[in-house]
Amino acid sequence: MSPAEFNQKITEIREDRVRGASELARGCLAVLAQAARELPAESVAEWQKRLLQLSADLAETRPSMTPVGNLLRRWNEGLAVDARSNLPVARRSAAGRAEGLIERSRRAVADCAAHAARLLGSGRPIMTHSFSSTVLETCRLLKDRELRMIVTESRPLEEGRRLAEQLSAWRVPTVYVTDAQMGLFVAEAAAVLVGADSVLADGAVLNKAGTYLLALAARERGVPFYVCCESFKRRAASDPPWVLEEMAATELGVPLWPEVTVRNVYFEVTPARLVSAWIDETGVRQSRENQ
Amino acid sequence: MSPAEFNQKITEIREDRVRGASELARGCLAVLAQAARELPAESVAEWQKRLLQLSADLAETRPSMTPVGNLLRRWNEGLAVDARSNLPVARRSAAGRAEGLIERSRRAVADCAAHAARLLGSGRPIMTHSFSSTVLETCRLLKDRELRMIVTESRPLEEGRRLAEQLSAWRVPTVYVTDAQMGLFVAEAAAVLVGADSVLADGAVLNKAGTYLLALAARERGVPFYVCCESFKRRAASDPPWVLEEMAATELGVPLWPEVTVRNVYFEVTPARLVSAWIDETGVRQSRENQ
């Protein structure tokens, strides 16, 4: 694969509105695995330099998506060790490490979902917002245990459709509502379960716009609000400040009115005090307020 | 106009998704004014009976819309007095009363908006949800006083577009966001101003789905939440129970997934404790909690 083709991959990841943060992080690692094997280089030093540049470019594509940064940083750290070998060995080692991290990330998602499924139990109506692979995996684990789901459309791109379609294929009875109806329907849920793009050092959750509204309504209605994501999504207090990504205004599909600014901020912060419990691959951590 | 044509008018009002509650109430009164003049009848008694039936049919079209019931009830009450005259006089009197109520309703909206504009003052960013004629009139009064607006799209039919288009024509700088972004953008508003379909006896507000979420977010962000509507929208404690109208699922525009139920509840209740002040044609009533 040529450098131009790697640049094309970067563009695809930057513009991807379908895959969640963990999937995109694994996508970045897959690009690095391939680059480690194929990127033209005269020396190990050149190879290492080019890979670090590619990794930095990938990390910059999705600044709100913490697992991208976390997994790439983890991979970068091993590159100095890889580079102590000759080029063919270094290539194999770096590619193998990327694939190992992909596997660890996948297993972390599966373990999160297993903990979430255990916490939620059978026969419960669960509400979610947006599309999360971890929530989807939890639904898969509960689909034959009388799970019922309440799903929001999640404007602007309506990724709730993808979730509703899969739930329907699994024969999970599902209610599909506009985002504006979240306050009405959360009252019918036994719990809310959302994924996250990041969890901040204080437990606040960075997730798709609308999550904060759902958390507020859940608290008002006395419905527990659970956040389920693997620990690769945690940001340390020392990490660079997070950024709320804004996407193209055209996604809202409205005319260009001269005095109107169309805003399309994808992510927002839900403060830790609205979270009842955080679920990751190691288990469930209840909020102190609920203990 | 024939009875069939009056039935057609009833259908139009039932299916109207553009006009708000007050406009529809005036629409009903206009139908009654015309019916009072034109409905075929052999006697005053027959005329009165047919008008009461038509009024009942109109009232049933939009059970969530209190001004429809309130204004029609007000009109019905005078019909016994009209019916003491001969048919031509009764026709003129009943039609005149309907037109008088239309005028009173219009004036009440204008007076509400004047109070709201005074309360909000110049140069403030104001956020709203859905489309309200009273909010629109308030914007018209403030449009040359450095008003800025934040407008939600208001799924499923996106009546926020109509508002944004008008604000743009008035050269009011406007930010247009998805409903899911309400929690982010309310923090940039000096106040929230919404209309209402009804105000319940305890001060709770029946309005477009999403209003409750906006009120919750406004409280969290410390932004005052004002409700502006004329007193014809108040429900007495003795009124029949209110109904949350649900519209066609097709308005959400999603496929028919076998296991998925698409819900499209238009209205929801925002409890009085989330309202900072109620504005009607007589003035501003602050919430007790804010006094």
Query: How are the strands of the biggest sheet of chain A laid out side by side?
Result: 3-2-1-4-7-10-11
Write down the overall geometry of chain A.
globular
- The assembly state of the depicted protein chains is homodimer
Please give the radius of gyration of chain A in angstroms. Answer: 20 Å
Q: Helix amount of chain A, in percent? A: 40-55%
Write the CATH fold name of the largest domain in chain A.
Answer: Rossmann fold
How would you sum up the major sheet of chain A?
Answer: 7 strands, mixed
Question: What is the N-to-C succession of helices and strands of chain A?
Answer: HHHHHEHEHEHEEEHEEEEE
Q: Strand pairing plus helix content of chain A: what structural class?
A: alpha/beta
> Class of the largest domain in chain A, according to the CATH hierarchy?
Alpha Beta
Count of distinct strands of chain A: 11
Estimate what percentage of residues of chain A fall within beta strands. 5-15%
Largest interface: A-B, 48 and 48 residues
List the domain count of chain A as a whole number: 2
Distance between the termini of chain A: 54 Å
Summary keywords:
homodimer, 291 residues, alpha/beta, Rossmann fold, 2 domains, seven-stranded mixed beta sheet
Structural notes for this entry:
The structure is a homodimer of 291-residue chains. The first copy, chain A, has helices at 3-15, 21-38, 44-61, 66-82, 87-120, 133-142, 160-169, 182-185, 211-221; strands spanning 125-128, 148-152, 174-177, 191-194, 198-199, 205-208, 225-228, 260-262, 267-270, 277-280, 283-286. The relative contact order of chain A is 0.13. In chain A, strand 5 and strand 6 form a beta hairpin. Chain A is globular and about 60 Å long. The longest helix of chain A has 34 residues, at 87-120. The first copy, chain A, has two domains: 3-108, translation initiation factor eif-2b, domain 1 (Four Helix Bundle (Hemerythrin (Met), subunit A)), CATH 1.20.120.420; 112-290, 3-Layer(aba) Sandwich (Rossmann fold). Chain A has nine helices and eleven strands. Chain A is an alpha/beta fold and 291 residues long. Strand 3 (174-177) of chain A pairs parallel with strand 8 (260-262) of chain B.
